[in-house]
Amino acid sequence: MISRKLAEEVIGAALSTGGDYAEVFVEHTQKNSMTMTNGIMDAAVSGQDFGASVRLLRGTECVYAYTNDVSAAAMLELAKKVAHAMEGVAKGKQVTLVERYNVNYCQTLIVPSSVQTAMKVDYMKRAYHAARSYSKDIVQAVITYKDMDQRIFLATSDGYCGEDRRIYTSFGVRSVASDGLMNQTGNHRAEIQGGFELFERYNPEEMGRAASETAVTMLYAEPSPTGELPVVIANGTGGIFFHEACGHSLESSSVARGGSVFSDKIGQQIASSKVTAWDDGTIAGEWGTINVDDEGLPSTKNLLIENGILKGYMIDRLGARKMGMQPTGCGRKESYRFAPTSRMTNTFIAPGEDEDKDIIASVEYGVFAKLFGGGTANPQTSSFNFNVQEAYLIENGQITKPIRGATIMGMGVEALMNVEMVGKHLAFDGGLCGAASGSLPVSNGQPMIKISKLVVGGQ
């Protein structure tokens, strides 16, 4: 993308006024997206993005700039502007970069750009017909296909120089069921950090039927009960609970400025002794895995909570300076247009010792949250609110009736303390997480868990 020699010159120019760390990031990304609504292709977008950024740090000060022009003259001019934005004594600094080869945790077998569009459309049609034919109550099915191929070059003033390639492919089905008076929606999606081999793991017909099954089930469900109730959260998609209720509050972007409920709590109990949690960017093939972060640091397996005790945070370079701690290889950003900050990768509650059947049997009256919709959280207070896409009533230790319109809300600090049981079967679910450094692929995981009490709302 650019030569190592040019990268050395750019970093040297950025450091010319006394900065103590600089990095140059170059990116070339190709994206494709298609949407099919009721069997008709109504959107198909392809595009390429190309640009570069320079970031300069001095202590806890930061200057960041980017450009679409990666010529030598433009890159050096950008570095000089960054340097002049940080006032200091002019001085020269020679930087020597050493190329490093990153570990590759995610192998792509079939590069999406090599697959004909007609084949992608065929998979979409197969999912659509399966979704619509599931029931007469299905009135709409929307199929989405996306792939992204991101190539980056990164060099830092501490000597790192390397390239990385990140390929992501996703496929989703949204079915709408209606009885003429009310609509209910079901979503089913699959995503891998890899290519078109996604369809060797996931069957489009099964995905279409699964989305429609959820929509129809919720159409004929009873309204959700309300009040403070025990809640059992299913494995896989339930991982969004930890992501929102706790994960954001453990990122240094919140912790370093004292804006997190978990600031200065290392070594203290913040959760039930049943809870051990990790952020692990090294899991082979997982959606949120990274080979190297966007600050040139290798991906890590980072222990956050151990048996309820807070053990660590997710820390980027700038956050590390503010906190007096070491970075953990989680400085991430969507593209060259964003400055990196601390972000989750694959965040999960570790498996426990409880059997799923025993977890359900322990609830006399409560809610089983099988599939989650959207959710929000406030890192400063740990308050959260989730829509539950598919939920069921638990009565006398058995899952009984489907219920619709359920939401769960509460405070992360309380909910973590109220985790009573943790199952054995860990599963992950991927998605996109938006924050200060853009929208990024992340995976959330957990086994089945039981929370003794949460506030449940309904329609």
UniProtKB/TrEMBL annotation:
Residues 226-458 form the Metalloprotease TldD/E C-terminal domain. Keywords: Hydrolase, Metalloprotease, Protease. Residues 22-83 form the Metalloprotease TldD/E N-terminal domain. Gene3D superfamilies: PmbA/TldD superfamily. GO terms for molecular function: metallopeptidase activity. InterPro entries: Metalloprtase-TldD/E_C, Metalloprtase-TldD/E_cen_dom, Metalloprtase-TldD/E_N, Peptidase_U62_metallo, TldD, TldD/PmbA_N, TldD/PmbA_sf. GO terms for cellular component: cytosol. GO terms for biological process: proteolysis. It holds the Pfam family PmbA_TldD_1st. Residues 112-219 form the Metalloprotease TldD/E central domain. PANTHER family: METALLOPROTEASE TLDD, UNCHARACTERIZED PROTEIN TLDD AND PMBA. Belongs to the peptidase U62 family. This is Regulatory protease. It comes from Paenibacillus montaniterrae.
